[in-house]
Design brief:
Length: 237
């Protein structure tokens, strides 16, 4: 079997959110878990993955120097090419990061800075899937029964759980495709809930890649306790 050519692959790690639901004195990406900031755990996995050639980190304008000194320089993340300034919303932040990617880039992964437990296997699988199909999205099948309700809170329909997935990151794309999708979204002032929906608007297909239930997004204080438990489990392996 002919081996696939390894394309130039970049990663955009988005950490510009305010994290207001955390209700703490600093953004969630800079909170320590297991003695290391959340964002440092996240970047480390991409730093150690040999398929990733460069990393662009996106943070708020006020946190650029803090991130550089206390995350990038302190932990020696040499693959981080630059720190981009985030926008008012996540979509704008991603677009700002994409514009900083090397011109040689052919595949790009977009990942939430607040998901520190992404596995290298998920990264590699999403790269190969995007290389073949153009777009890939890491996720997991939902475990709970999902109901559709009306505006008054009454159940209208029970959805078929076997066809439902919870979306995670990374979401991975051929670079030209996702850039075109973002330009079109900007042109028409379309706001999507993730990057995959921007590609869907173009009529392109996105293939799901099995992720991990440990790949949580840290959003609330309760998530910090779950994160510490995940770390403890990993240390025991």
């Amino acid at each position: 079997m002919k081996k696939k050519q390894q394309l130039f692959t970049s990663a955009v790690i988005v950490a510009a959110g305010r994290g207001s639901r955390m209700n703490m004195d600093r953004n969630k990406q800079f909170i320590d878990i297991g003695g290391k900031p959340v964002l440092a755990w996240t970047i480390q996995t991409f730093q150690e993955c040999n398929r990733i050639k460069e990393i662009v980190v996106v943070v708020s304008e006020q946190e650029v120097m803090y991130c550089k000194q206390n995350i990038i320089d302190f932990y020696g993340f040499q693959k981080v090419k630059t720190i981009a300034v985030g926008g008012k919303e996540r979509q704008e932040s991603v677009y700002n990061g994409l514009k900083e990617i090397d011109s040689e880039c052919e595949i790009v992964l977009i990942h939430d800075g607040a998901r520190p437990f992404v596995k290298e296997e998920s990264i590699l699988n999403s790269i190969s899937t995007a290389q073949e199909y153009g777009a890939a999205c890491v996720g997991v099948p939902v475990k709970d029964t999902i109901k559709r309700v009306d505006e008054q809170g009454f159940i209208k329909k029970t959805l078929d759980r076997s066809t439902l997935w919870a979306v995670q990151t990374p979401q991975t794309f051929k670079y030209d495709l996702i850039m075109h999708a973002h330009r079109e979204a900007t042109k028409w002032d379309f706001k999507g809930t993730d990057d995959a929906v921007l590609v869907e608007r173009l009529g392109a297909s996105t293939k799901f890649v099995m992720g991990s239930y440990d790949n949580i997004k840290i959003t609330t204080k309760e998530d910090l306790a779950v994160a510490e438990e995940i770390l403890s489990r990993r240390e025991e392996l």
